Structure formats: C-alpha cells, structure tokens
Hints:
Chitinase A, domain 3, single chain, 8% helix, mainly beta, 2 helices, 34% strand
Amino acid sequence: xxxxxxxxxxxxxxxxxxxxxxxxxxxxxxxxxxxxxxxxxxxxxxxxxxxxxxxxxxxxxxxxxxxxxxxxxxxxxxxxxxxxxxxxxxxxxxxxxxxxxxxxxxxxxxxxxxxxxxx
Length: 119
C-alpha cells in the first residue's frame, strides 16, 4: 500500500477513541500486548498538519503495544495483518491535557496505521 492521505475532518473532535477500518486484513490478528510492525501516518485533528510518518523515513517500525500511547494499545488489537485502520485519539488517550510537557499535549490525533506483521 502507498502512503495514506488523510482528509481534514472538520467539526468537533471526539471525546472517545474512534476506530475505522479502511482495509480489513486477512492475516494474523493483533492482540493486546503483542509486538506489531506498522507503517503509520499521524496528523493533528485541529489543523490536519502531519506530525509524524514512518512513510517519510522510508521504513516501517516495530514495537510492543504496551509501550505506546493508550489510543494505540486500545485501537490496534483486533486488527489483522494486511489491514489499514484509522484511529482518532482524544488527548486523554494520547499525550494528555494541554501543558503536559509533550508538544502534542492537548491535541486530538488522527493516525492511519498499516499492520504489516504481528508476533
């Protein structure tokens, strides 16, 4: 799959995690606590500005779910390898309230995640 495009959503940011499958994969299923290999793109809900993308680095990334923000820990399980999923993650499941010390604190974030492998 190619790098995804994220349309600027507009409207009010959600208060809870929103999960939307763009492509449903048919490979192994990610479970809580799994190690996942993904390509991803992240943008700020408020502006649509991209803040991070594994696509721009030209390589996927692999990490254990338990080390990630809560929105990923809650939003990736159930995904299958080969799938592409959009997560809209409110601040309390991302980097916390504004003033929390992270440059994305207080932001609702949108990620599009391609699940490449799970173990």
